[in-house]
Specification:
It is a single chain. The strands form 4 sheets. Strands 5-6-7-8 form a 4-stranded antiparallel β-sheet, with no helix packed on it. The protein has a two-stranded antiparallel sheet with strand order 1-2. Strands 3-4 form a two-stranded antiparallel sheet. The protein is rod-shaped and about 115 Å long. The longest helix is centred in the N-terminal third of the chain and has 19 residues. The chain is built from 1 helix and 10 strands, in the order H-E-E-E-E-E-E-E-E-E-E. It has 3 domains: 73 residues, no CATH class; 55 residues, no CATH class; 53 residues, no CATH class. It has 189 residues and is of the alpha+beta class. The protein starts with 19 loop residues before the first helix and ends with a strand.
Length: 189
């Protein structure tokens, strides 16, 4: 229904406007339409109060449903606030399509560090969160670990020795399929 305007006449008390009964009937019709659109009044789930759209049903959902290919657009220049949240958690979408927070997936903008459960990533460094914890790279099937890094033609101390020195600089401790090994390493030349 379109809004019903009340004819108030050309001048005060000139008798050309709507009679009182007609005027108040239009007012009632306009309010019925307004309450129906806004959800105000008893039996409706949605109410508008100040700057809030509120579900009046306990645990009632508020659904924003654009028509056709329309989108729900939140016009904000900087931030979107969630009153119930997990500090520094990264949002993710679960299998039901619900947007959630999880304390196992966080980002700290002060240190520029992302944490995924016990793994931290900062700049070009991946480390474990807990001290003395192994970092496991678990490949499915026949995949291999590929270290895409620079190489050098010889091994040894500064001066470019071409033969492997008698003693390595140290040993890397690794596990292959759960078995511990050490790999000797030498100073870069």
């Amino acid at each position: 229904m379109a809004i019903q305007n009340i004819n108030i006449g050309s001048a005060a008390n000139d008798g050309t406007g709507d009679p009182l009964r007609t005027a108040f009937d239009k007012i009632n019709d306009n309010f019925v339409e307004l309450y129906g659109v806004t959800g105000a009044g008893s039996g409706n789930n949605i109410a508008i109060s100040g700057n809030s759209i509120i579900s009046e049903n306990s645990n009632g959902d508020v659904i924003l449903d654009p028509n056709g290919t329309g989108k729900v657009v939140v016009a904000t220049s900087a931030e979107l606030r969630f009153t119930d949240h997990t500090d520094k958690a990264i949002l993710f979408v679960d299998t039901d399509g619900d947007v959630k927070f999880d304390s196992k997936l966080t980002y700290d903008p002060n240190t520029n560090t992302a944490t995924i459960e016990d793994l931290q990533i900062k700049s070009a460094t991946i480390s474990t969160f807990n001290s003395n914890q192994d970092l496991t790279i678990d490949l499915a099937g026949t995949g291999v670990v590929n270290f895409d890094t620079g190489t050098q033609a010889s091994v040894g101390s500064a001066g470019g020795a071409s033969a492997v020195p008698a003693s390595p600089t140290g040993y890397l401790k690794i596990k292959v399929s759960g078995t511990s090994y050490v790999i000797p390493y030498f100073a870069a030349s």
